[in-house]
Amino acid sequence: MDDRKTPATDTVANTEDEDWVDRLVPGCVPRDFAEPTPELTERVACGLRRLTDEAK
């Protein structure tokens, strides 16, 4: 029987903390979500249509 335990890292040991995910994500990643504008949605749709047309 193997009595060894996996060593707990700081991240694993503190998963009970409410901010443990924030420590995993780099600071440059935005934490707020902005609702996409209709213009952005249309630009994305056009780009996706163009990609699918080029793939045919």
From TrEMBL:
Entry superkingdom: Bacteria
Protein name: Uncharacterized protein
